Amino acid sequence: MAMIFGVQLLSTLIIGLFMTKIFSNYSYGLLIFYNLWFCVPPLTEHLGSFSQAYKDHMKKKPRNGDKKEALEDFTIPRDSEFKVRYNKIISYTQIKLLPHGEEIDMIVLMSLSSVLIYLVTELSIYFNFTPVTDLHLSYIWSLVVILFCVKFLCYMFKVYIQLGGGERSLCALSTFLFIVFALFVSMADKRSIDFGIDEGYTQFVDEFLKFGNSTKMIKGGKDVSMPTVKAFKGFLIVLSGFVGALLTFPSFRFGALNSQLLRSANVSVEGEDKPGYKESLYEKLTQVLVHFNLISPLLVILCWCKPLVQEHIETQVDISDKTFSLLRIGFIALIMLVRLFSIKLYAQTHLDSAKRYVQNLKREAGRIDHKTVQQKIAYTFQYSSVVVLQILTPALVVLQLCLILLSLHNLPDEMPSLSPAHSILAGVSDIIPDVVSQSDVTVFQGMRAVLTKNFLTSVTSYLVWWIVSVNAGVSLFSTCYHHVSEQV
Questions:
Q1: How far apart are CA 26 and CA 119, in angstroms?
Q2: Could you please report the per-residue DSSP string of 207-221?
Q3: Are 391 and 329 a contacting pair, CB within 8 Å?
Q4: Most confident of 112-121, 145-154, 161-170
Q5: Backbone φ and ψ of 79, nearest 5°
Q6: Most buried pick, 83, 195, 246, 303, via CB within 10 A?
Q7: Quick one: average pLDDT of 188-197?
C-alpha cells in the first residue's frame, strides 16, 4: 500500500493520528455551539404558581405523615408571566446531551482531515514528491465524508417517512417533482447547458471495452452491449430525484431560519430587548449574510448556462474554458465556506425559537398543560444538533465534490504511461505474489484507464450543480412561504 500512495499514505497516517490525538478530549461540535444561548425549561414548581389546582394540592396536608408529592398533571393560563432562564453552552458535557453530538464531531473531524490531506497531496505533486498520475488518496477521504453526510440525510429521510401524514406525502411529492425537473434538464439543448456527460460516458464505454478485451473479460471477441447514453442519463435522473428528496427538508429548514433572521432581530440572545437594534450594524451584516446565502446559489446555477454566463465572460475577459471552470469551482467553494462560517448564527436563531414560542404563547387565550411547555422548550435545545447537521451536511458534500473537481482539473487531458509507483507495484507482484498478484496490478491499471478524467468531471459537475440548485430552489420557496405565513 505504501508503494502505491507513497507520501500520501504517510501524510494520511500523520494527519489522522494528529487530529485524533490532539482533540481526543475535545469536541469539534463545541466549535459550533460554543457561547450560544439556550432556554432552560421552567421548573414545575414555578409553573405551578400560576395554577390554582396546583396551589390547592400543595395546601392539602399529607395523610399518615407521608411525604407530599407534587401534582403531576395541571394546566396553566397561556398568558401566564412565567420566566424562562438562559444558559450558555461552554462545556463538552452540554454537547453530550445532544442526540447527534457524536455525529457532528465525526463529520467535522473527517472534513478537516480530508482538507488537510488534499493540501498535502497537492503540495507533494507541486514539488514533484508524488507523480501527477498517481491515485489521489484525498479522493477516498472526500468520498468517506460524503458517505457520512449521506448516511445522516438518509436517516432523517427515513424518520420523516415513518412520521407519516404530511411529511410522507411531501417526500413522495418532492421525489416526483425533482425527477421531472431532472428529466427536463437532461433534455436541454447542449448549447444552453451542458456538463459533458455524453462525451464522458462515451469515452468511459470505449475504455471499458478495451479493458475487457485486454484482460480477456470479454471472451472470443464477442460484441458486448453496454448501456447507452440515454440509459445512463435515466440512472442520473432517478439518482437526482432521490438526492432532491434527501435535501428537501434540510433546505426547507434552511429557508425557515433565513426567514426568521430577516424578521426577528428585536430580541437579543440573552433575552432582553435591545433598543435601536434595527439600526445596529449587527443586523445590517446579518441581512447581508442572509441575502448572500439565498441569492449566491442562483449565480452558481447560471454559471453552467453557456449563453448567459460562460460565453459572455470568456468573450469579455478573454479566458479559456479551463480557467473559467477553475473560477467556477472557487466561487462555489467560497459560497459554501461562507455558509459554514455562518452556521453559529443559524444555530442561535433556532435556539431563540424557544423564546419566540413563549412570547407567542402569552398572546394566546386558553390554558395549556405545563408539561407541553417544558417539552417544547427542551425539544428546541435537543433538536439543535439536527438543525446544525441539516445545514452542515449539504455544504460539506458540495465542498468535497469541489475538492474532487479541483484534483481532476489539475490532471492532464491525456494521461501518460504508468507512473514509477505502478511499475514498482508490478515488481513487488513478481517478488511477493501472495501479497500483490499480477492480476491485481492489471485490474488496478485498467480501472485507472476506464475512469477517465472527462467522465468523472462531467458526473461530479452535474452533482454539484444539482445539489446547489435543489438547495437554492427549496430554500427560496421556504423563505417566501414562512414570510407570507407570518404576515397572514
A1: 24
A2: HHHHHHHHTTSSGGG
A3: no
A4: 145-154
A5: -90, 20
A6: 246
A7: 79
Share the mean pLDDT of the chain.
78
With a CB cutoff of 8 Å and minimum separation 6, the contacts of 33 are 89, 94, 95, 344, 347, 384, 388
Q: Radius of gyration (Cα) for the chain, nearest Å? A: 28
Average pLDDT score over residue span 370-377: 84
**The three three-digit cell numbers of residue 20, written as one number:** 485524533
At residue 410, φ and ψ (nearest 5 deg) are -80, -10
Percentage of residues of the chain with pLDDT beyond 90: 19
CB proximity list for 305: less than 8 A, separation 6 or greater:
192, 193
Residues 251-274: what's their mean pLDDT? 69
pLDDT digits (tens, 9 = 90+) for 409-446: 877 666 554 444 444 444 444 444 454 455 555 555 66
Query: Can you tell me the distance from the alpha carbon of 43 to that of 432, in angstroms, rounded to the nearest whole number?
Result: 70
| pLDDT top residue among 49 and 170 | 170
Give the pairing of strands 37-40 and 85-88: antiparallel
- Whole-number Cα distances in Å, 97 to 93, 110, 343: 7, 22, 20
Contacts 24+ apart (CB under 8 A), 232-239: 232/197, 232/201, 233/186, 233/197, 236/182, 236/186, 236/197, 236/459, 236/462, 237/179, 237/182, 237/183, 237/186, 238/179
